[in-house]
Amino acid sequence: MQDQQQPILTVENISFQYPDHTLGLDGVSLTIKQGEFFSILGANGAGKTTLLKILNGLLKPSSGRVLFRGNDLSSLDKNFLFSHICTVFQDPNDQLFAQTVEQDISYGPYNQGLPEPEVRLRVKKALELVGMAEAAQKSIRSLSYGQKKRICLAGVLAMQPEVMILDEPTSGLDPMGVSSIMRLLKKLNQEEGITMIMATHVVDLVPLFINRLAILRRGKMVQVGTPEDIFNDPSMVRGASLRLPRIAHLLEILKKEDHLEVEKIPLTIGEARRTIVNLIAKRRQDAV
């Protein structure tokens, strides 16, 4: 097993300028560790998608470089790169193209030059991993939006990547669909060892699923850290045109307006419940 503390992707002072001279990224540096679930957080236009496209080799930075396991991305064979760093698009309709589920998922492994028995095994395993084992012969057109998202994941899993890049993977889903997809991604991260890099602006997901995150604002890196590091600096978060998770915002208000004795702002319902229960117990004990 590879050391999960080793960097798998290293971003060194990259900038990117679009043909119309718009600056998409400005001096961004970042290290992503093997096996972690990493999130890139920012408001619309912050540079999240641009950074993802540089991480997977679809765009070349105007300056700086990106290293995959210590090797410059620009020096790697494209087939090797696209097999090891795979992307799940925001809209599944931009990614799915075949008539049936099996045909779509098998495209990547066939393109890798794998023999048919291996391809069939990979398709079967990928469908099992995303909870759609019975869907192989279904028409892509017959699938719901959420099912299409899962088939996109299966298509990437069949490539057996080391890194999975996800651009707003919960967009267009209802609350139950969001929860289902995020639990699936976390399971794949923990059980399959896939390094996940997810761009999102949905801050409430971060404390529940993410190991570390980076805040982008207008193409610049604002801060990198754990959810606790980031969201216990509300002024920085709001300065990046983002908000605190709802539960953290509630506890922040209770602390400021109602003088609730909270040292560290809880980020999840479970943490908030424990904090409030402990405070109630303390007040009862003090009252005796």
Can you offer a commentary on this structure?
Strands 6-7-8-3-9-10 form a six-stranded mixed beta sheet, with helices on both faces. The model has no long low-confidence stretch (mean pLDDT 92). A hairpin with a 2-residue loop joins β4 and β5. The protein is 41% helix and 22% strand. The chain has helices at 48-55, 78-84, 101-111, 116-129, 145-157, 175-192, 206-209, 227-231, 234-239, 246-257, 269-287, and strands at residues 7-17, 23-33, 37-41, 63-68, 71-72, 85-88, 163-167, 195-200, 212-217, 220-225. It folds into two domains: 7-242, Rossmann fold, CATH 3.40.50.300; 245-288, no CATH class. It is an alpha/beta fold. It is globular, with a radius of gyration of 21 Å.
